[in-house]
Q: What sequence folds into this?
């Protein structure tokens, strides 16, 4: 109705006479264009979903901004022109408090956004647990049809927290005098750092943290159930964009590495599934940002000896050409790593059926185990239960020891959490070994199609 009224008014102005007719027409045309753009953004009908999916609508959960400045600035780049929301969960119950504790925190968060010179909204919530708070923010964050479709979490590990608001110059406009930096940091009324785990007064591994490893993985599983993409960011506490994008720091070039395969499942060597495409899209979007345009994408294909690679390379090359993604493809042999996987060890370690020293009951038992293994070979909970530390560390060394200059950031495939909640802690430990000492790394799991070639 409003758009129809504006069009009728425009028609009357163009037919009428007067010196101000042209100026009024120009103003009205701007209003029509603005109205059309807002209508597209706020409508959530199916006809517009293919466009909305191509935008990055990111919700970054921040426990304490003092330790997350590097990650906050990096996600501001990767979201490009999409929606960016900083989320925080304050633990507590409103019925036991005299007033809302969040009202006094908004000014500090907004001052932080201005200080970092980023474009982001701030959403704070009060909940009895971090898990419930994240669910709440995923439900309510956004504007109209622009709802966050990607949840970003910091990695759960035992890294000691460091206050990056003290003693660190984030930009050229920040004061260089340490006293002025300290006075500026006092403007942000954020809570003090938690005590590091492993101290004398630390009663458990997650001492001082708002949640434990079990709840952390549950948050990941909840987001996937809600059809949200998930990204886990590790080693971004020391990330500085200026230093990361300096060619001198990176051996003469800036690189972004993408490993589009589930490294925990060598048998699932599929490079064009939804998760792999999401990795490619994020890397491509990062490369489109002005500050990252000089970075070069490197795509690593893990191959085994004796398996046909021509079809995979040709299919991947055609996909990159259709998507207009410029990336250098590297083939990485990983036979020695795959040999440590439980699937290959199980096959190699079986007794031969014609062995005279094998008892018949043992042969029957091995046959039953073989049938059971084949039945559950595609079951991730079974795979998570059988992965060895030797295999994970071997894959970790494979990534680290590539004969290439180190990248500014790595994109890895994030496997889906196991269905068995009792294995959540083991799943997190496996991710810890896989990404050990890799530098800034994003573990990414995509659940919804984000790339189309039909437009």
A:
């Amino acid at each position: 109705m409003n758009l129809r009224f504006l069009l009728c008014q425009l028609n009357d102005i163009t037919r009428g006479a007067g010196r101000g007719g042209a100026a009024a027409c120009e103003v009205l045309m701007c209003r029509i264009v603005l109205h059309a753009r807002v209508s597209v953004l706020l409508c959530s009908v199916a006809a517009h979903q293919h466009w909305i999916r191509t935008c990055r609508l990111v919700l970054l959960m921040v426990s304490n901004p003092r330790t997350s400045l590097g990650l906050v600035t990096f996600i501001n780049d990767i979201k490009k022109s999409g929606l960016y929301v900083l989320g925080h969960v304050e633990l507590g119950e409103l019925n036991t408090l005299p007033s809302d504790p969040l009202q006094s925190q908004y000014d500090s968060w907004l001052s932080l956004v201005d200080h970092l010179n980023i474009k982001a909204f701030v959403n704070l919530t009060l909940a009895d647990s971090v898990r419930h708070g994240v669910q709440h923010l995923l439900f309510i964050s956004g504007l109209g049809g622009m709802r966050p479709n990607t949840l970003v979490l910091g990695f759960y590990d035992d890294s000691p927290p460091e206050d990056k608001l003290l003693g660190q110059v984030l930009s050229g406009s920040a004061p260089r005098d340490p006293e002025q930096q300290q006075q500026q940091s006092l403007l942000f009324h954020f809570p003090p750092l938690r005590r590091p785990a492993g101290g004398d007064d630390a009663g458990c591994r997650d001492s001082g943290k708002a949640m434990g490893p079990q709840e952390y993985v549950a948050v990941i599983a909840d987001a996937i159930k809600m059809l949200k993409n998930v990204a886990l960011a590790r080693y971004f506490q020391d990330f500085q964009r200026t230093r990361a994008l300096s060619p001198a720091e990176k051996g003469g070039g800036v690189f972004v590495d993408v490993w589009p395969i589930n490294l925990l499942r060598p048998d699932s060597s599929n490079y064009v599934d939804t998760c792999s495409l999401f990795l490619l899209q994020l890397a491509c979007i990062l490369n489109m940002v002005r500050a990252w345009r000089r970075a070069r994408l490197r795509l690593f294909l893990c191959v085994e000896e004796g398996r046909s690679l021509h079809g995979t390379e040709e299919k991947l090359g055609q996909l990159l050409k259709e998507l207009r993604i410029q990336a250098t493809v590297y083939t990485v042999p990983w036979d020695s790593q795959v040999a440590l996987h439980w699937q290959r060890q199980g096959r190699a370690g079986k007794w031969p059926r014609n062995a005279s020293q094998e008892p018949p009951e043992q042969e029957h038992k091995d046959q039953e185990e073989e049938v059971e293994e084949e039945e559950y070979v595609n079951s991730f909970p079974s795979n998570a239960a059988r992965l060895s530390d030797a295999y994970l560390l071997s894959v970790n060394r494979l990534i680290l020891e590539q004969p290439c200059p180190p990248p500014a950031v790595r994109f890895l495939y994030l496997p889906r959490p196991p269905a068995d909640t009792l294995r959540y802690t083991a799943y997190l430990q496996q991710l810890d070994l896989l990404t050990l000492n890799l530098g800034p790394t994003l573990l990414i799991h995509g659940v919804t199609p984000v790339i189309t070639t039909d437009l």
Observations:
- The radius of gyration is 26 Å.
